[in-house]
Amino acid sequence: MSQDTPTPTPGRRSSRSRRRVDVTTVLAVALPVLVALALVLVRPGDTPDTTSPPTLTALTRSTVVCPAAAEGAPEVALTSAGEDVRGTVHVGLGDDKSDARIATGEVTTVDAGSGPVVVAAEDETAPGLVAARFGADAPAVASCLAPQPEAWFTGVGAGAGHTSVLELTNPDSGTAVADVLVLGRHGLVDAPRLRGISVPGGSSVQVDLAAEVPRRDELSLQVIAARGRIGATVLDRLAPLGRGAATEDWLPAQSEPATSDLLMGLAPGKETRRVLTVSNGGQDEVRASVQIVTDRSVFTPKDAPDLRIPPQSTAKLNLSGLLADLVADGDATGLLVTATAPVTASLRSVADGDLSHAVADPGVQGAATVLLPGGTSATKTVLLGGADRAGSVQVVSRSATGETLATDTVDVAPDRGASLRIPAASVLVTVTPARTGVAGSVLLSGDAGAAVVPLTVPALNGLVPAVEPGLP
């Protein structure tokens, strides 16, 4: 018996197959559209910033380190750039300390002995602490600075005619350790004894470079505080063999290399030798060019050669002839060294037998303070440059008792310098820029010699690092 097999209905199969195709097509088109709409409507949160700047806080402690005294000048000058400060600070090193009174706008002088000293202030006397040491016979000024993690000294010597002494002072009770890198004409100098120099608490260590790394070429030092705090200073000395008396002066430090180094302060004199020294601590060769800064412009001299500095090396350029007429005419006030990579720079001048240094000046945005020696007939001139925009600078000159001797306003602008002569009796000078940042120094010049004093920005506030929970 046969049974008929049901015949499939083509229409139904066709309908079911068409329905499946339509759903797939709709999903293929609709899903991307829905995802795009969701991204538009739902804005993802911004990536959180994992770094935060430190916050300002009241300064409750401050410390500055002064070098060993020049022969016959054991005094240390003290003042405060803070507001309405009047109190006591501690002067000395280790257990040998004494108290001294300081006040805003006044200069106190104390006999601190012949060795290096630390000036420490606490609480209300901490903000704005400023100190300095002076020479005895010839003009010389060493600003006392806070310990830094790194300091550069460019143009030091380690030979018979030109030698330098590095002084490392530890202001704290625990032992500090310093690493000193020496950069010479042909690269990094092998000086293993200058690595890991231990400085006991409350003491200082002197390093005579002529004894440690005797060399005739120009050198540069990079002093790194590997542990603890270190106050580093350098006393530079020239003793020409058979050509005159020895002369010495402190060589200021440069905090870090820069591609643009402004050196304000060219000592005048009839017989002058000037040597520009540039140091390259990087791994590539650097090319540096020199420009002259005047009150009217910044220009490149016709015969000024460029300077090539190999990696981790120091190079020099004799500028005696190039600057002779410009300084004699009173036109040149400084140098601008521009390099293809960060470098440090200094200009060593020997004018009429007296040594002075012009070191790259850091730009200042706020008030800067300079302490100057009194009882001298030297001409005192404030030299400014490096303005990033047109603005003005107020210069206030005071006596030791706080009497205002002069208040002047100097207009500054990019690509030119500015100079202002202040009263010879000025011992405390405050330089305050407005609407611009500037760099500069104070030049002391006279029959006894010359000195260049960089602007100093005292610490008025402390910094507290931002501490936040880490990301999961």
Structure description:
The protein is mainly beta and 472 residues long. The chain is 10% helix and 50% strand. It has helices at 10-41, 209-212, 320-328; strands at residues 55-58, 61-66, 75-80, 86-93, 96-103, 108-111, 117-122, 129-134, 141-144, 150-158, 162-170, 176-184, 187-188, 197-199, 203-208, 215-227, 231-238, 247-251, 258-264, 272-280, 286-294, 298-299, 307-309, 313-318, 332-351, 354-359, 368-371, 379-385, 391-398, 404-412, 418-422, 428-434, 439-446, 449-454, 461-464. The strands form 8 sheets. Strands 19, 20, 21, 22, 23, 24, 25 and 26 form an 8-stranded antiparallel sheet that branches. Strands 10, 12, 13, 14 and 16 form a 5-stranded antiparallel sheet that branches. A hairpin with a 2-residue loop joins strand 25 (332-351) and strand 26. The chain is globular and about 105 Å long. The termini are far apart. Mean pLDDT is 89; it is low at 11-20.
State the gist of this model.
This protein is globular. With 472 residues, the chain is mainly β. It has helices at 10-41, 209-212, 320-328, and strands spanning 55-58, 61-66, 75-80, 86-93, 96-103, 108-111, 117-122, 129-134, 141-144, 150-158, 162-170, 176-184, 187-188, 197-199, 203-208, 215-227, 231-238, 247-251, 258-264, 272-280, 286-294, 298-299, 307-309, 313-318, 332-351, 354-359, 368-371, 379-385, 391-398, 404-412, 418-422, 428-434, 439-446, 449-454, 461-464.
